[in-house]
Amino acid sequence: MAKNLLIVESPAKAKTIEKILGVDFEVKSCFGHIRDLEKDEMGIDVKNKFAPRYIVPEEKEKVVKELKQVAKKSGEVWLATDEDREGEAISWHLCEVLGLDPVKTKRIVFHEITKPAIEKAVKTPRTVDMNLVYAQQARRILDRIVGFELSPVLWRKMSMRNNLSAGRVQSVAVRLIAERERSINAFHAASSFKVDAQFIAEDIQNKKVGFRAEGNKYSGVGEAEAFLKSCTGARYTVSDIQVKPAKKSPAAPFTTSTLQQEASRKLGYGVSRTMLLAQKLYEAGYISYMRTDSVNLSESAIGDIREQITTSFGADYVHIRKYKNKNESAQEAHEAIRPTYMDREKVDIADGQKLYELIWKRTMASQMADAELEKTIAKIDISTNREQLTAQGEVLKFEGFLKVYREDRDDDEINDEEESESMLPPLAVGQILDLKLMKATERFSRPQPRYTEASLVKKLEELGIGRPSTYAPTISTILKRGYVEKRDKEGVKREYRVITLQSDKIKMVTESENTGAEKSKLFPTDLGLVVTDFLMQHFKDVMDFGFTAKIEGEFDEIADGKLKWNSMLDEFYVPFKKDVQNTMDNAERIKGERELGTDPESGKKVVARMGRYGPMVQIGDVKDEEKPRFAKLKNTQSIETISYDDAMELFRLPRTLGDFEGSPILVNIGRFGPYLAHDSKFYSLGKEHDPYEITFEEAEPLVIEKRKAKEERTVKLFEKEKIQLLRGPYGIYIKKGLRNFPIPKDRQEKAAELTIEEVQKMIDEAIANPPRKAPRRKKSS
DNA sequence: CAGTGAGCGAGCTTCCGCTTGACTT
Predict the structure, then answer these.
(1) CB-based contacts of A617-621 (< 8 A; 24+ apart in sequence)
(2) How far is the CA of A150 from the C1' of B11 (A)?
(3) What is the mean pLDDT of residues A733-738?
(4) Distances in Å between the alpha carbon of A377 and those of A101, A231, A736?
(5) Nearest amino-acid residue to B15, taking CA and C1'
(6) pLDDT tens-digit readout, A112-146
(7) Which residue is nearest to nucleotide B22 (CA to C1')?
(8) pLDDT-derived band of residue A744, with 50, 70 and 90 as boundaries?
(9) Å from A617 (CA) to B6 (C1')?
């Protein structure tokens, strides 16, 4: 008898399941979605109740062809795509493509790849849930409409580049980053003085040890100083001691989002790197599926973890826990991310060991006992005033899960008030303490930190925007579009005051610290800011942080059969299309203009704005008789924050430095950075020279040196044809205009002897046989 | 390579979500 065919989404899963199911089944994978809306006219017949037009994308033709062939010779076809909205839709598309009846075809689901789960699933097949399919279809069509209607609005209204895009997810992601930047720019640090005392006491071995106690916070320097003064000559007495037990619990096992966050905090990985390594670990069979929003672990996994904890640390350390997902938007088609076998400690994946260890530790910790602590709080009276100091100590009584793992926190979660967990020497009520030093240190409130890739993912997940499979690609998109940049920011020096009381003497000193430094953070570009403002102004609904949550509610209603998918779309589309039309017809072009002041020389206005080639400053207007002057902003400058002085500084270029061999040396910043120009030739300026500061004396030898290097690079020149033979890092090549062509290896040696005819022939051959590139999308007919 | 800063309006771009290779360098 012919085998049955079971179709799953992931090929790695197919292998495992085939082993479990045995000889009755052949298991194949469809590699995710196999059909999508065609691109022409959005692939939607809006006037005909949003009827979708689906096609098999070119890159999926091979998979579909193979599935068709196998299906033909198989017995029954079983659909085992993921148990979520997208998975249900994939099953339906498979029915459509393979000519199966969705009412009769067997559909099974499981969210863990274990023998009992799969065997149980096979015993209880259902059929495709069309309401869930309609919910997915509504999701797909709405996203297509938003993306393909909004993006062209940007192409029309922005004078800049033409590959701009907007969408339900990416535009809100950029908005988050834009608003964070503005809140940081608007932030004013408030200062206060925090009192902190250092005492000496004896420990158990009668050794003198130091410990710290905290005092109050004072908003002004006067108040802080007055307090310290009031402590001169005081006696410090322990007035109260409280000892309280406390405990800490482990974090839930990893989901995609929490894995990305921890890999970012602990290993410094960007989200794409994390996902790439996780994919490799998954494919090698070392971890469970890495794109998941579930914190659930299978029964067999929990058994495995329990055994591993018992062997490694003892039964005392086991505490089996069921975690619940906080996130309502979670669809939980898979398990949490965990090792497949807990007894494996090493993996042979390049660069994968650290990530694997992180997953292993987190998984172990999640099923381990609480850490038990003992907190001691001692109150210390001051004889000369009515204030009190507080010393806090913490002793770890039982390590529990901390034996293997502790979760890191983001900057914005670290509370200033929280004290470092240190030990206290044994103290007794009534005990008199020796003061070594009391300090009141000036501290400043901090703005919210900029987003990292991972903290942005966390925020998006909280808002229910995006899915585990799209977090990393979304960040790549907004970076690629130039809405956002990932970079470091150097801190600035800031002075702070410290008042000390020591040996009954008060002193005030000023110290300095570095503040505001950030590493690998997301900054909005001017383009991102300007586009966000525009979308906020004209498409407030789609840009709302609650928009996705709102439509998700409606998709759920569709899935429950309470709402028709095309009426839901109609409800959204009618007002949306009106906004699009209205914006197209009436909105002004996006400029993001900001007036900075007046040019003292010409008396004309100085403005910063978006130009065709990016952010710039401009003196005068195009309507003036005299042409306006333009200058490009530096990478770190922004239309929103550039000062008048910094703007005027930009107009110091181009500068003429002086004459050399009868023609002037010019310095300027061009498309490819700072350069020197001399005798209609150009020489790039390295980072070691500042175009604003470089002198003629420095520039002259540079011109000579760079000219010589350029000459040495030129092997041969065909002046009439404007063709050069140049020496590059990979050998000699042909340069014609902007295009480069290779010279075959066997002709490299005597390249200088090549004739123009031979060179021309090489060019023709190179054009006729272009290097094979990634398969290009054919237009489907 | 090193100008430009707006507009002709050819022909192009664009979304989110599910999955991996097969392309370069």
Answers:
(1) A617/A642, A617/A647, A617/A650, A617/A651, A619/A651
(2) 19
(3) 71
(4) 70, 22, 78
(5) A147
(6) 888 999 999 999 999 999 999 999 999 999 999 99
(7) A774
(8) confident
(9) 16
CA of A614 to C1' of B21 (A): 37
CA of A770 to C1' of B23 (A): 14
CB A529 within 8 A of CB A616: no
The residue lying closest to nucleotide B20, measuring its CA against C1', is: A31
* Residue A781 binned pLDDT confidence (cut-offs 50, 70, 90): very low
- For A357-399, write each residue's pLDDT tens digit: 999 999 999 999 999 999 999 999 999 999 999 999 999 999 9
| Contact in structure between A139 and A557 (CB atoms under 8 Å) | no
**SS3 readout for A336-353:** CECECCCCCCCCCCCCCH
Q: Are A133 and A127 in contact (CB under 8 A)?
A: no
Q: Which two tokens stand for residue A439?
A: 């300090």
Nucleotides of B under 7 A from a protein CB: 1-7, 11-25
Q: Nearest nt (C1') to A609 (CA)?
A: B5
CA distance A256 to A258: 6
Residue A177's CB: how many other CB atoms inside 10 A?
A: 25
Sign of CA dihedral A275, A279, A282, A286: negative
How far, in Å, is the CA of A476 from the C1' of nucleotide B4? 29
Mind giving me the DSSP string for A214-260?
Answer: EEEEESSHHHHHHHHHHTTT--EEEEEEEEEEEEE-PPPPB-HHHHH
The distance of Cα A417 from the centroid of its chain, to the nearest Å, equals 29
Here the tokens at position A403 are 């034996």
Between A536 and A698, whose confidence is greater? A536
Please confirm, yes or no, whether A341 is among the known catalytic residues. Answer: no
Distance, CA of A55 to CA of A196 (rounded, Å): 69
For residue A293 the two structure tokens come to 């929003």
The DSSP code sequence of A408-462 is ---GGG--TTPPP--------TT-EEEEEEEEEEEEE--PPPPPPHHHHHHHHHH
**Measuring from the CA of residue A612 to each C1', which nucleotide is nearest?**
B5
Distance CA A280, CA A267 (A): 17
Determine the nucleotide nearest to A90 by Cα–C1' distance: B18
Closest protein residue to B2 (Cα–C1'): A670
DSSP letter assigned to residue A58: G
| Contacts of range A51-58, beta carbons closer than 8 Å, 24 or more positions apart | A52/A137, A52/A140, A52/A141, A54/A93, A54/A96, A55/A780, A56/A97, A57/A777, A57/A780, A58/A775, A58/A777, A58/A778, A58/A780
- Catalytic residue (choose from A218, A286, A289, A471): A289
Residues A649 and A640 sit within 8 Å (Cβ to Cβ): no
Residue with structure tokens 């393979």? A98
Does A323 have pLDDT greater than 60?
Answer: yes
Closest CA to A241 of A393, A383, A75: A393
Helices (H) then strands (E): counts for chain A: 20, 30
